[in-house]
Amino acid sequence: MEKVPFRSIPDLLRHQAARLDTKLAVKYRKQGSWVTLSYSQFFNRALMVARGLRKLGIKPGDKVAILSENRVGWTIADMGILCAGAVTVPVYATNTPDQVEYTLNHSDARIVFISGKWQYRKLLKIKDAIPMVQLAVSFERFLGEPSLPLTTFYQLSEIDDPITDQEREELFGVIDAIGPESLMTIIYTSGTTGVPKGVMLSHRNLLFDAFATIEKAAVGEGEVFLSFLPLSHVLERCTGYYLPIASGGMIAFADSIEKIAENMLEIQPTIMVSVPRLFEKIHSRIYEHVHQLSLFKRKLFRTVLAVGRRYVYARYIDKKVPLWLALQHAVADRLVFSKLRQRFGNNLKFCSSGGAPLDREINEFFWSIGVPILEGYGLTETSPVLCNNTFEQLRFGTVGTPLAETEFRVAQDGELLARGPQVMLGYYKDEESSREAFSDGWLKTGDIGRIEGGFVVITDRKKDLIVTAGGKNIAPQPIENLLKRDKYISQAYVYGDKRPYLTALLVPTLEKLLEFAQEKKIVYTDLEELVVHEPVLELYRQRVEAVNAELAHYETIKQFALLPRDFTIEAGELTPTLKVKRRVISERYKDKIERMYTVAEN
């Protein structure tokens, strides 16, 4: 690709504000109505934040944290921090007070932007342990306490005082002084294992990744992005926020993850960035509806889906569609697929999926109905995108081909190594981990994989691989994905390291389980009681056996336990991108796991 034409993220925004001016940059809900900001208004608001931060003594290189759920203020605060030459430290809104304390202290953050009272209370709990924090800046208005100074976002921005020519000139001087290799952000890894590490990314890291992805995925100007993943995570930060600005698109902020379905119809997005969990849920809902149809309609659905799949393979992989197939597909699309696509609005061009492996069958399903998902792969340490599938280069079961100037190789133990302009500067205040992360200049990804015809295939996380007592190496995620495809199973966790066989913790799909209980007239007082009822256990034995029929003998689930509630971010069992924290779950449900092995032995 051509050299990235900007020195920094604020340099990019300044250019886009001058070029696009009144074109819409962001859209968000305010007091029940949708409100917009143009590119020039957005940049102006960011400059006001930068002005306020400089008046508080923030200098280039200082650290400023954002502890907030997604909202337009998050992006304005971030851009303001960067326009002041400072470093943004995102903190997950779901973090506990102890986790917030660690991040703020380790990063040396001096000011914290917060969403409102809920996050302020977290700070109050740890105020004596965060001596460097001078001030909290809230997006919402409420009264603070003298022990922790508080101001509002509008007060800091001095929203009623326009930026003067002199202030603009001074801020442009600060922006001009930011170099491509300057530290831009410290993102603390969500920590599926151990203590979070602060990943240091430069302006060049994120600019390169955004522009290389735009070029590879052929993202044009004027796209509408629906944003709902946490901005604290690098996937949404780069591909759902910096990338739209770099391409001249508009970012529309969803009301919440729960409201995505109705927001899609309101916003009519053209591009959506998501994680596999959303696609799994939509896939499950569609199939629930299909199961309720008559036998004839169920058979018809399977037939048209097979036509859709053949068409996708012919068009995007073989690059040649026979006339008879094109005609069949046109009929299938008109009768069935077009109606399914209405759930996504009428303008969706494609979705992007990352953060965790997407089940191949689910991916093929969405392509078949005309909702292409371009699956990619990357890490916080790589800004994040390293590779992705495109319309021109598509292979199911892979995470695509590398971005420009990005290389992969496979180490002797099967670990994927990567290098490219998007690879991090290192870990903040941790030289030892920074050294350990690299091998001869190549980043160790921690993932096991292979390269097939230029396409990258990920088989599992290196540290997640299960080695059974019999010496078999088993990747748990593909088995978990198979289990989650079942309409009665919402979440699954497979265990078996150094054990004679595999076991699983299963979270039932609540609606389906309650329907079953009603149908069988099961009497119970709560979910804890329901999940151990014999008819329920027998149902799940049958579901697990159906999955086992698709697995090699050593991969089959010999015992399982049903859990009465979902794994959640709040309980610390999932990362913010909904990946299972294996260590937390194995520790939390240690007794249940042990029982599954002692039961079989007795």
Layout: helices, strands, pairs:
Blueprint: H1 9-20, E1 24-30, E2 33-38, H2 39-55, E3 63-67, H3 72-83, E4 87-91, H4 97-107, E5 109-114, H5 117-125, E6 135-138, E7 150-152, H6 153-157, H7 165-176, E8 183-188, E9 198-202, H8 203-217, E10 224-227, H9 234-247, E11 250-253, H10 260-267, E12 271-274, H11 276-291, H12 295-317, H13 323-341, E13 350-353, H14 360-368, E14 373-378, E15 385-388, E16 401-402, E17 407-410, E18 415-419, E19 426-427, H15 431-436, E20 438-439, E21 442-452, E22 455-461, E23 466-467, E24 473-474, H16 476-484, E25 489-495, E26 502-508, H17 510-519, H18 527-530, H19 534-548, E27 557-562, H20 582-588, H21 590-601
Parallel strand pairs: 1-11, 3-4, 3-5, 5-6, 6-7, 10-11, 10-12, 12-13, 13-14, 26-27
Antiparallel strand pairs: 1-2, 8-9, 9-19, 14-15, 15-16, 17-18, 18-21, 20-21, 21-22, 23-24, 25-26
Sequence stretches where pLDDT stays below 50 over 5 or more residues: none
Based on DSSP secondary structure assignment, what is the total number of beta strands?
27
Overall pLDDT confidence: 94
- For the record, give the distance between the C-alpha atoms at the N and C termini, rounded to a whole number: 63 Å
- Say which CATH homologous superfamily of the domain at 274-462 is assigned: ANL, N-terminal domain
InterPro entries: AMP-bd_C_sf, AMP-binding_CS, AMP-dep_synth/lig_dom, ANL_N_sf
Pfam family, one: AMP-binding_C_3
Domain AMP-dependent synthetase/ligase: 13-428
Keywords: Fatty acid metabolism, Ligase, Lipid metabolism
